[in-house]
Amino acid sequence: MSDVGETNSHTGFDTIDHQPAYIYTPSGTNDDALERPTKRRKVARGRPSVLQPHDSINSLVFEPLLGEIETLECVQQRQDLFEKCWSETDARIQSILNEANEDTLAEVTAFVDSPGDINQDDDERVPASFIVTGPNIASQDLLFKQLSARLKKEINGPIVTLRSGDASNMKAVLKQLIRDATNQRSEDEELSQERNGRKLLNYDLDILQSYVKKHGSQRVVVAFQDSEAFDTNLVVDLVILFSSWMDRIPFTLLFGIATSVELFQERLSRAASRCLYGFRFDVEQTSSILERIFQSAVANSKASLRLGSEIVASLMERQHDHVQSVQSFIVALKYAYMCHFYGNALSILTDPSTSSQLLLKLMKPCHFEAIRMLPSFRKLIELRVESQELDRARELIQDDAILVQEIEGALESKDGNILRLLRAFHVFASALSEPPSGIDLYMTIFEGALSNSDYLKRALDSIKRMTPNDLVVFIQRIKGAIENGSHELDLDGWADEDEGLIRELRDVEMKAVGLSENSADIEKSIRSSDAIHSKGLRTTVIAQRVQLSYEKSTITEAEKEFINLIDHVSKLLEQYFALENPKDLFLNELWLCDSADSFLDVFAPRPRAAIENALSAPYEYLTCEIGGSEEGLSSTHPPTAIIYQSYLEAGSLINMADLWTTFHEILSSKEGDEGDEREALMQFYRALADLKLVGMVKQSKKKADHLAKVAWKGL
Amino acid sequence: MKRKKQADETPDTQEHQPDQKKVPPTNELNHGITSRRASHKGEDGIAGHNQLTHSKDQPVGEAHEDEPAKSVGKAASMDGNPIVTPRKRSRVSPTQVLPEDETIGTTPNKTLSGKKLFSTPVKVIGTSEANGTPRLARNADRSARRKSTRTLIERSVLGNTSDNDEEDEDIAQHIYESDDEGGIEVAETGNAPETPSKRGRPKGAKTRRRSPTPPPQDLLPHEKYFFQNRGGRPKTSDNNLSSLALLDHEEYFSLVRNFKDPQTDDIKALHDLHAKSFNQWGFELSQDFNLCIYGWGSKRSLLMRFADHIYNSQTVAKPKIVVINGYVHNLTIRDVLNTIATAISSSSQKMGSQPAEMLENLVALLEEDKSQNITVIVHSIDRAPLRRPTTQAILSRLSSHPQIRLVASADHPSFPLLWDSSLRSTYNFLFHDCTTFQPYVAEVDVVDEVHELLGRSGRRVGGKEGVSFVLKSLPENAKNLFRILIGEQLVAMDGSYGDTLVGEDDDDHDDNERRFGNSRKTEPGVEYRTLYQKAVEEFICSNEMNFRTLLKEFHDHQMIQSRKDAMGTEMLSVPFRKEELETILEDIMS
């Protein structure tokens, strides 16, 4: 069997284990034995319902779920769906990314093309563009790739991107510069390496010069991608060197700067800064790009999968506290899609475009069973029971046909429900003059908490402070949002669907306009409803004493009407924003992805916790025979775990002799063990080496045969 | 307080035996502690002062111990006490000193018994509890050096048996502090009772009080950290492994081969559990993610199994899999790139010499055939050979190529620190916790690692037998050079013997104290220059070239170690313990 072959190959001392690098080809003998997945697939293939052509099996990456009884069609369906959904989303994201940098790219290209006013031959200053990318160094890579692609298209001349990692010293940088510059136009190997009978060294800028001459290059663009990470002296030397070559090679420099131009300049020596002149270009900051991506990829009405509030919250927390990078957000989003389609057998129902009839044909009894396990199904049943529809509830549980009806209904209303949420999202965001951040708002809405949220309260309060004119503007904004929809969210206007609301709003608007016109006529402004209600406080100072008296405000007819109007609007809005919690909807699991914990582990590992846990609680992983479930020392634990336990109890200095004695005692306490000391010693050795490997101990110089403790658990 | 202390101490200094009777047993401990504490303060004062005058006499190890107390000492001496610093008892006449000093008048008589006391530290504990200082004061006529040497000798003779290092330390302290002014320290303490000594001298008393209470349980992690790193030196026994016959490679491997792990089945089950997600991993790889697996246990066999899985799951075109063993010491990034290049096209390509250049050529090579996918499996990506930032940058750029799929394993608990956010996003890793509990068979050279922990790295040569074997095959000159080296090292060990022991003692203290410490003495070695001079003198070699050549041979066999000390001088040493060195020397001489 497979394990025999394996243990053999690993206990035996393979030379291949100690070869630094090699090309792996599994030995032919255990080829089949080792292959579990094929076996599994054989089982699937053996199912009668499946008749798939051979190659599609091979292209199939997804696994059959539901205890491997899912049909291959479904698996295929899921995989196709994933590819379709993700590629749509990805395209949207990419277009935004390209747009976001578009301005910067255009500006930089223009600068490189004609670097300003002074370009006389005797000017030795190097034109430089400082691209302030912000602290997000992870996205610099993308920017510079775009930049060099763009420049390559529009500029005649080589473009070289330098990274701090490659640039250890001057010679290496020049070598790389020349190599990259000259290799860019292919087949130019025969470049004159020799001149005037002498051979040029490969870091001689003469090579570059002759290259430039030969190709008539306009510019030689050198980009320092992460300029802060370069050795300052190196940058200074390079700048001065380039400047001295300016009369022969038309250099242009690009600096990617994460902090600020001022700080960058401070680092340069004066001599070097004198050699530079240039402009600063700002790149759109991460947070605003992020918001846009979020709107187009997550909140978009066409997005097939939505992230739940929990997952968004954790992603955002990570974004703010740790990574600050758009890429990582995109990657996380992609992973959410992957998880959803790979791991959720019901995701075949996610697709909005396919008709539900077609899908239901694919469904097998196992799917219905799976649906009955969903929390949202349970909620549905509970609802039915509460409303005394016991028969219906029973039917739903027992009869697949009835369930199918229910599913169909849910699928049909699904889009409407989501649309409703998104519309509310859009209206809310566009109605206020200072809307909360889209991501926060999204989270609130998808928690189903908008109606009780601070956002709504604040919005309603702000209405009360409005004058009729403000109110008109406010209502016009709402109307505009409803009529025009949103481009970013891909929402079309839905005025005809929400006629009631529009009519009401129009009414209110008319009245408000009338009021404000009236008030303008009689030259008495109408106060906001807040101002009307708050009692005017009048302070008078009489004989050095303050007297407070309340001013009774008199309310005019118009104001009374205005108050009514405001109340009406608040009620309307409250009604409009009373949204259902998406998590209460039946079958929300199909389109809402909301399990944050396993998700973050994949991107932010906690290896230390994992190792500590494995060593201090090995019984969670292995069945440690008798008494294994208890904490503490047990001879059935793996040796390293035993040592680790003593290690935890010890102070900062550990006597190895004592450690060994303890270890030996624990091991020999095992029953039936002949207590072979050498064997125990071997295990002791192994455990110690393990601890050293994970950096928990080191040799102590303080005392002979002592270990110094380096790591503390849980810190 | 002064009064009370006197009451305690006077009787016992006058009469040695009956003191126990006079002091009620119940109070004994308390008295002992108070008196000790008080006297310590005084001692510190004197010691500080003492240091000013006699700093040359003191063993370095002790010196810094008392450094912080220097100011105290000054203060005390300013107190108006007649600080007579009598080297000889005769100069201190009892009348000259403060009235309390009648205690001292009697002490000289008991010098003999004092000696005896010293020979048995245990006894000292018992009595010095109650009346520590006066007893010690008796030895006031000894010079610091002589006395500390004596303690040291005694200690080495007794094999440092006492568990209670504090007492030893106290005694050593006392001896050397009582050096000149033991006689008046009682007076001193009386005058400056409240001056707190910075060093927390009452350590002995404190630890004694602490010792009966078991270490607190259920501490929070940070509390535990501070508890275990609290002041004072950690108390560990003086047992050592000298009696244990250590394993050598041969024995180790034969034991490993015969060893049957009772948990094999469980480990296997765990392994299978992880193997169930292979398909998922494959999917993730196909989506341009790279994988990094972490967790306890060797992940080598798991990844190899995954390699098999990849190999078998694609029936049409055999996928190309490159395996990198990150734990192999001589691995370089060039090996990695070269191997991948050969995997792409079997014809040998000119790759260039710089890694960055090689990477570019490699990418160009990859793009010739877009359909080709290479899976690169890196075992232990966080081990030393691949740890350098430039290497990681190259690897990450390699992995970000769409045709390259990287599967890596990481062992260290802090491996994410290897990568900054930029590298991390280039790598585009998905992390999976795969705790396998498998022994690190290939990754770790267990025997070497443990011997390094034990400070017996000399065993790498194969112990002293190995050394003599190597020496047999070397010319006479080399043998002689080695003999000189060992000889010199032994001399250095002997010369610093007293010092090292004291040094060892102080090494046991806090790390803060170590900054004063004589780290130079922790590992005796021979200066490169000195050795060269000796070698020239003995006509072993005529110039430095020769000398270097001879040394190189030893280096190659790892028979000597060279390191730079704090001053930058090169020190050579043979990585063996003293006894082993002696036997080697005998071997050579015979």
Automatic annotation (TrEMBL), chain A:
MF terms (GO), sorted A to Z: DNA replication origin binding
Subunit structure: Component of ORC, a complex composed of at least 6 subunits: ORC1, ORC2, ORC3, ORC4, ORC5 and ORC6. ORC is regulated in a cell-cycle dependent manner. It is sequentially assembled at the exit from anaphase of mitosis and disassembled as cells enter S phase.
Compositional bias (Polar residues): 1-12
Location of the Origin recognition complex subunit 3 N-terminal domain: 51-349
Protein name: Origin recognition complex subunit 3
Lineage summary: Eukaryota, Fungi, Dikarya, Ascomycota, Pezizomycotina
Keyword Endoplasmic reticulum: no
Role description: Component of the origin recognition complex (ORC) that binds origins of replication. DNA-binding is ATP-dependent. The specific DNA sequences that define origins of replication have not been identified yet. ORC is required to assemble the pre-replication complex necessary to initiate DNA replication. Binds histone H3 and H4 trimethylation marks H3K9me3, H3K27me3 and H4K20me3.
Biological process annotations from GO: DNA replication initiation
UniProt keyword Membrane present: no
Domain Origin recognition complex subunit 3 winged helix C-terminal: 608-712
Organism: Lachnellula subtilissima
Pfam families in the cross-refs: ORC3_ins, ORC3_N, WHD_ORC
Origin recognition complex subunit 3 insertion domain segment(s): 368-589
Family that this chain belongs to: Belongs to the ORC3 family.
InterPro entries from the UniProt entry: ORC3 (IPR020795), ORC3_ins (IPR045663), ORC3_N (IPR045667), ORC_WH_C (IPR040855)
Cellular compartments annotated: Nucleus
Region annotated Disordered, chain positions: 1-50
Entry GO terms, CC: DNA replication preinitiation complex; nuclear origin of replication recognition complex; nuclear pre-replicative complex
TrEMBL record, chain B:
Biological processes per GO annotation: DNA replication
Extent of Basic residues compositional bias: 198-211
Residue span(s) of domain Origin recognition complex subunit 2 winged-helix: 520-580
Compartments, record wording: Nucleus
Family the entry assigns: Belongs to the ORC2 family.
Function, as annotated: Component of the origin recognition complex (ORC) that binds origins of replication. DNA-binding is ATP-dependent. ORC is required to assemble the pre-replication complex necessary to initiate DNA replication.
Name of the featured protein: Origin recognition complex subunit 2
Species whose genome carries this gene: Lachnellula subtilissima
